[in-house]
Each structure stands twice: as C-alpha cells, then as structure tokens.
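Crash report, auto-generated. Payload:
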Amino acid sequence: KQEVTQIPAALSVPEGENLVLNCSFTDSAIYNLQWFRQDPGKGLTSLLLIQSSQREQTSGRLNASLDKSSGRSTLYIAASQPGDSATYLCAVGLSPKFYFGSGTKLNVKP
Amino acid sequence: NAGVTQTPKFRILKIGQSMTLQCTQDMNHNYMYWYRQDPGMGLKLIYYSVGAGITDKGEVPNGYNVSRSTTEDFPLRLELAAPSQTSVYFCASSYSPGSPDTQYFGPGTRLTVL
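Recovered output after restart:
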C-alpha cells in the first residue's frame, strides 16, 4: 500500500523567505505526483503536476521536483507572500488511484 | 464550463438516516473519485470510477455506496449514517489518456452526523 508523508506538518515563515515543502512516498511505481493548495474551508486547487518521466515542473514562483528512485518530491516556493498561506497537499498517482499526504500548513507572516 | 459541482454544501443528519451526495462534472472526464477529509488530515479515497458502469472501492468504502450510470454523474450514498461519517466529502474527476491526469475537485460537502 502506498504511504505518503509530508514534513513538516506546519511551517511559519516571514514574508519574502524562500521555503521548501517535502513529500515522501513508499512505492516508486507512480504515474505522476500532484501538488495542491487548500484554503480553509475550501476545496483543492491544483498547483503542479509532474509526470513520472519528468524531474521537475515550474509555475511562477513555484517549482516542484520529483525523484522517483528515492521516493521524494519537493515544492519550492520563492519569495513567499502572505497570500501563500494555506495548506499544501501532495498526491501520488498510482493508476487509477491517488494517495494523499496529510499536508503542510503554511503561514507566511507579513 | 462549471467543472465539478457538488450538492449540498452542508448537511446535518441524525444517526441512522440516509442521504445521497451529488457530484457532476462537465469536462467529459472518464475517471471520478469520492474522498473524505477529516480535520487536520489528508484525503482518503472512498470509491472511484473509471467510466460509466464501472466502480471500485478505495481505502475507506464501508458505509457508502456509489453508482455511475452516466459519464457526468457520480453520486455517493450514505446508508444508516453514523457519527464516524462526520467529515468533509470531496468529489474529483480526471481525464485519463492512459493514466490519470490532473485531478479537478469540487467545493466539498460538509456533513455532520449527530
């Protein structure tokens, strides 16, 4: 069974800081890995999707990397802003299912 | 193009009651999913469907049933509601050209069982 772990569970940083969120998974035979953002009381918004054949994806200030052999992915957020405060979840695609981590709650202080 | 819609947004049930959570997507996606999210936790897969007429269990299917008679709709049925089913329920869909692609989520249904 696929186990997905996200560390840290919570993170508080001052505005402007660069930060890294971590996601690890136990079964490396994945199809893809997706990072989501969840605001309080809201649904999930997709940020980045990395296919198993890719090493990284970038969107604006976000960069996600994937290392299948070590079972790890990182989400790098550059120049963090208070508007980035949310919970970030990773989901590992092991067709046809997805397995979610429990998320990292990020607080960016003005 | 509304994406994934869910109804109702909120619901309070008494123990033993039944209800159906509705989910509709207008993106012609063949894969659809139901998840539950308990406070401070990630999402757990309840049921999923890879196409009309095809459904299968996820990690936590007990106490729930699903059907998929059309590509667009994937309702989740709760029979004999229990307090342990208090949670936020999310429906998602995904296009699958060989493997599931980006998931799109509905806004969720917040269910309380008293």
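Post-recovery validation: Chain B has a mean pLDDT of 92.
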